[in-house]
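Please, structure for the following, as tokens.
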Amino acid sequence: MSVAVKGVFIVGAKRTPFGTFGGVFRNTSATELQTIAATAALKEANVAPDQVDTVIVGQVMSVSHRPSGGVFRNTSATELQTTAATAALKEANVAPDQVDTVIVGQVMSGTQADGIYTPRHAALKVGVPQDRPALGINRLCGSGFQSVVNGAQDILTGAAKVALAGGVENMSQAPFAVRGVRFGATLGLNYAFEDTLWAGLTDSYCGLPMGMTAEKLGGQYSITRDEVDNFALQSQQRWKTSNDAGVFKAEIEPVTLTIKKKQVSVTTDEHPRPQTTLEGLKKLPPVFKKEGLVTAGTASGISDGAGAIVLASEEAAKGLKPLARLVGWSVVGVDPSIMGVGPVPAIENLLKATKMTLNDVDLIEINEAFCAQTLACAKALKLDMSKLNVNGGATALGHPLGASGSRITAHLVHELRRRGLKRGIGSACIGGGQGIALMVEAV
């Protein structure tokens, strides 16, 4: 399923910093995170909330190998999303009342008691009028990208002129569950706590944990341990160089939290480990397979955060300052046991639909779910590695699944403009065997 489109513009793109598992956002709900991102995006776009026709947010759950307390462990997904959305609207110079629709993707909404309301609550907290609808969607790791697709579809069909899209996740708030007790306990039966965060990381259809799908894919493409360790180090180093240079300031909306009775402004990503060394990476043991490729240092980390993208029709964009044009997108299905290969056919189909080649693309972002998986995709596509994840990826930043597509989209838009480049592709593999990719063009 691939398509090239005209007449859809990105006028705002913001995200919150990404907090590590159990960190600063552990008590901040997904709704709060999304509200922050959405408010910032609307402000950036100069779009009023009542100009929004629809709101779309992606929210899922993922895993990491860094279970330490992070800044957002007490921040709900709603709060995070609100921050990102507010910033995106501000960037776009769009008032909340200009938004026609709001779309939010959500898989494991149980990270907060009112999680099933995240899309609607984020929209209302941003200031979108009550008569504008909000939608929750789920394409797992691709939900942030899918929110952009859904928003574009609303615009292309004439259902909306301005759409607020986004993705959010607070994995730190994933609960433990005891299944089967609602209707009484059987005498002598011992019930067990289930970690809902980890339980979802095995695909019951193919019977493999996500890490083993990366091992299988890495084996098929002859990826070596040295390659993944070096790639992981590169991700951390590129993030540090870019962060030190202030590259991420254009896309990040700071989040203010109260920690130990003090107001703290979170302005940068919490998960990266810039002190990482190659020697340290080589000492880490494989997690899923003897002499395997996936270690705590070569997989994406668990993190919390949100992103928001403001989309506008060509007509609506005339009164704004567009950042980029949405050129097209592609969504595909692949073998679940090698789900990480999804970006390959997604990108190939996208290029066919837009009648372009990789030579026409200046920057490429493939979500680093696993270093082995990303390298396999790069090898299959024969990518110019100097164009890939130029400021680091999820190995450093972490992978709050619902937010990752929004982060990548926002980063691509701002980085293309910063470098004076034209065209970029963002892509992600998707658990269960899918891939998604979209293309943007700076204006």
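The CA atoms of residues 87 and 387 lie 28 Å apart. The radius of gyration is 20 Å.
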